[in-house]
Description:
This protein is mainly α. It has helices spanning 7-40, 49-56, 73-83, 95-102, 115-124, 131-147, 150-160, 170-178, 187-196, 210-224; strands spanning 162-164, 167-168. Helix 5 (115-124) packs across helix 6 (131-147).
Amino acid sequence: MSLRLPANVANAFADRKSLMRRIGQFVLVIIAIPLVLTPIYWIVPPISTLMIWSALTFQGMERDWVGLDDVAPVMVNSVIMSEDGQFCEHSGVDWNALGIVLDREGGPSRGASTIPMQTVKNLFLWQSRSYVRKGLEIPLAYYADFILSKRRIMTIYLNIAQWGPGLFGVEAASQHYFNKPASKLTARQAALLTAALPNPIVRNPAKPSRAMQAKARIIEGRARAAGDYVGCI
C-alpha cells in the first residue's frame, strides 16, 4: 500500500523545493558574475556596485578613467604604503594584518582589507561591514590577484575608489579638489587624497582637518620611503 501525502502538504513541499531551487540559482549567478567579469576587466574599464548605486539614487557618478602612466607615481606610492604595505608580497590577502584586525571588537574593519580585497568589494559586494562580506572578499581577492596583474589591480582600484559623493577615481578627484590632472599631483596632494580614502564622504582633501593633515604627513613620509614595497608596479 502506498501512502499519499495530503494535497496541502505535498504542495508545501513542492513550493519549498521550488524556492530552494530559485535560491540556488540566484547564488550561482552571484558567484558567476565575478568569475566571468574579472578576466574581462583586463581590458574593459569596470564600474563598481557603489558607482551603480550612486547613479541609480541620483547622487551622481563622475569618473574619468586613466591608465597608471597618467597617475603621479607618488600617488601610487601613497596608496600602497597607507592602504596595503605588503601589496607586492601577498597573493591577495595579508593574513597577518587580517588576523590582528579580526581579533578586535566590533567586527572586521577597513584595516583588515588589502587593496585586492578593497577592489573586489567595490566591484562586486556591498559597503557595510560584516563577517559575511569579509568571507566573500577573501576568495574573490585571491581570484583577482591570480587573474590580474598587480599593476592592473592598482589601476582598477584607483579608478573606482570613491573620493566624495558621486565622485569616483583619482582623475576626477584630482580635478575636483586640486584643479589638475592626476599626473600632476604633488606629494602633499597625493597624501591628502589618500588620507581621505577611509571616509571620503566627510573628508575633504582640499580643506583638511588638523587630524587629516597629520595623517597626510605620515603618509607622505611613507611614500618617500616606498622603495621595494612598490616594485611590482
